[in-house]
Amino acid sequence: MTKKGKSSKQSHLVKCKGCPIQFAPKDKRQKFHNAVCRDKYYLEHYGSPPVSKTCANPKCGAQFTTTMPKKQFYCKPECREEHRLAVQDELHSRVVAETQTYLGERFATMRRDNFKCVYCGASKEQGAVLDVVIDDGVLKTCCLECKIGKEALG
Q: Is 130 in contact with 124 (CB distance < 8 Å)?
């Protein structure tokens, strides 16, 4: 229900923070009716002139102005989130690749040593729990008992 004498469209109008113009904001956080008015307001109140920057998202690369050049790197929040997800995906794929390489090296080491401990000769068939250790810079198959003994000796 609208107030008497006002249409529903007028009830959503807000006054621009930088000038007397009333406008319908696209977002509840919008305080200025355009970028020129916003830049003028910040220059008057904070003394920081607007700076032209390029969006840090390589897929976007748009030019934008900001009064916070040390804090704002992206033209809009969607660009920031898109770039964050792309970087996160790249890091995840690196971790997966490194893990698969490590697991492949472990298996290759155990196969090379015939799935037997190189120190005592225990095998999986004898109930030994096998692991891979680095000894003198080389990967070697080792049973759990020998590994604990080697760690205890230092």
A: yes
Task: Dump pLDDT digits (tens) for 35-49.
Answer: 888 888 887 877 667
CB atoms within 10 A of CB 51: 14
The residue with tokens 């004498």 is: 5
The tokens for 85 are 């997800």
Distance CA 37, CA 134 (A): 65
Residues 6+ apart with CB under 8 A from 69: 51, 53
Q: 146's torsion region: left (phi>0), alpha (psi -120 to 50) or beta?
A: alpha
55 is written with which tokens? 């969006």
Q: Per-residue DSSP letters for 68-117?
A: -TTT--SSSHHHHHHHHHHHHHHHHHHHHHHHHHHHHHHHHHHHHTTTB-
Q: What would you report as the CA-atom Rg of the chain, rounded to the nearest whole angstrom? A: 32
Sort residue 33 into left (φ over 0), alpha (ψ -120 to 50) or beta. alpha
In this model, does residue 137 exceed pLDDT 50?
Answer: yes
Give the phi and the psi of residue 146 in degrees, each rounded to 5: -65, -35
Q: How far is CA 143 from CA 79, 122, 135, 136, in A?
A: 51, 7, 13, 17
